[in-house]
Write a structure and sequence with these properties.
The chain is built from ten helices and 14 strands. Helix 4 packs antiparallel against helix 6 and helix 5 crosses helix 6. Helices cover 38% and strands 17% of the residues. It is of the alpha+beta class. Among the domains are: 176 residues, C8orf32 fold; 91 residues, Translation Initiation Factor IF3 (2-Layer Sandwich). The strands form five sheets. It has a four-stranded antiparallel β-sheet. Strands 9-10-14-13 form a four-stranded mixed β-sheet.
Length: 391
């Protein structure tokens, strides 16, 4: 190869080498710019994908199994997430798991002064009307289920408020009895003794359990009812209720109406405040009863037109062993005008409203002299009513 050819090769090689370096530099610059743009686009696309995935695929109602699977957008195949082995309770829906309820103790809550507080039935009432029982403890939940069953058994759509109040009263009398072990002291009773749980679970409570049960069932019936902590005639702490019927407050003592505690059923059901305060004392404001309409007496007044009519009624009551009180409106008609004279063993045709008590007393002894009777006069809507209790 001559010298000219050698020089030409050298020149061409230098030219090519120099141009390649420039081209390489330009290519590097272009790649860097496009890479930066692509990276930015990828980041934006990734952010959008993640944001879109959070709002469209996250489902609180999905099962726990689906929470351990991540869908890779570049593949139709599910890819297992290694983090699924970690127990993250915040990402797992617990709706399919059975609710673990807190266990209720048996100690009665107290106020700041150490005084026992009445059992609070309102969480159960709220759960009944809302349908959400998740906040109830185990005893409250048991009580809710039992109370719902009781309401379904005793309450019908055609009942008046008075009928509902009486149905609740009768249910408690039939399904509860006084816990004699705690007879003398309300302060030492347990939570079970003082709550509806004690009635539904064991069929035994003290007075606060009777009163709390009455409030619970009345409230579940839609009746406004309050629990009153007061004192009885012997100044022993005692619990009873007031219930609102057709705009008037009436007083109920389900404990003292229990057959197993007192031998009569309705002496303390739907009384006026004046009637209840005869042997109950209160340390709180209790409203006056503005109507006699829904007292038990007003619903059960019996018109007596003759002494024989009364005797027949009394005999049937004693034969059937139903010693409920009678509320008698003594008529001025024939037989009731008689006054019994022991010496003459005869009736005298003389009418005096004050003498009717002696008339009924004597007639009662004629039917059965071994029975203990109690006779009380009361005034209902301006009329003198004679109440007869049979023991």
């Amino acid at each position: 190869m001559n010298i000219n050819k050698i020089c030409l090769v050298i020149v061409l090689a230098s030219f090519l080498l120099g141009g390649g370096l420039v081209a390489a530099a330009k290519l590097t610059s272009i790649y860097s710019d496009s890479s930066s743009t692509a990276s930015s686009n990828i980041e934006e696309s990734s952010e959008k994908d993640i944001s879109s995935d959070d709002t469209t695929s996250y489902d609180d109602s999905s099962s726990a199994d689906s929470s351990s699977i991540i869908t890779d957008s570049s593949s139709s195949e599910p890819v297992s997430d290694s983090s699924s082995d970690i127990d993250d309770s915040s990402s797992v829906d617990d709706s399919s798991k059975p609710l673990v309820r807190s266990a209720a103790g048996n100690e009665i809550p107290q106020d700041a002064q150490g005084k026992e507080l009445p059992y609070d039935v309102m969480p159960i009432v709220k759960a009944y009307f809302s349908g959400d029982d998740s906040a109830l403890n185990d005893k409250e939940y048991f009580t809710l289920i039992a109370a719902e069953k009781a309401i379904n058994e005793i309450i019908t759509d055609d009942m008046t408020d008075y009928d509902k109040a009486k149905a609740v009263h009768d249910y408690i009398e039939e399904n509860n009895e006084y816990n004699e072990k705690e007879l003398s002291a309300i302060e030492i009773s347990t939570l079970d003794d003082s709550s509806p749980y004690g009635m539904f679970k064991y069929g035994k409570t003290v007075c606060k359990g009777y009163a709390a049960s009455y409030k619970l069932l009345c409230n579940m019936c839609g009746l406004e009812c309050e629990l009153i902590i007061s004192y009885d005639g012997s100044k022993i702490e005692h619990a009873f209720n007031r219930v609102l019927l057709d705009g008037a407050w009436y007083y109920v003592d389900a404990t003292w109406d229990d057959d197993n505690y007192f031998p009569y059923d309705y002496k303390f059901f739907c009384l006026t405040k004046q009637q209840m305060m005869y042997d109950h004392r209160t340390n709180e404001i209790c409203p006056e009863t503005e109507s006699f309409k829904d007292t038990y007496a007003a619903h059960n007044i019996i018109d007596i037109h003759s002494i024989d009519e009364y005797k027949n009624m009394l005999k049937k009551s004693l034969d059937s062993n139903t010693p409920i009180p009678y509320y008698l409106r003594l008529s001025k008609e024939t037989g009731v005008n008689l006054v019994y004279h022991k010496d003459a063993s005869a009736y005298d045709f003389y009418y005096d409203e004050e003498e009717n008590l002696e008339l009924i007393k004597n007639a009662s002894k004629e039917v059965n002299g071994d029975v203990i009777y109690d006779f009380v006069k009361t005034v209902i809507d301006g009329e003198i009513i004679l109440i007869v209790y049979i023991y």
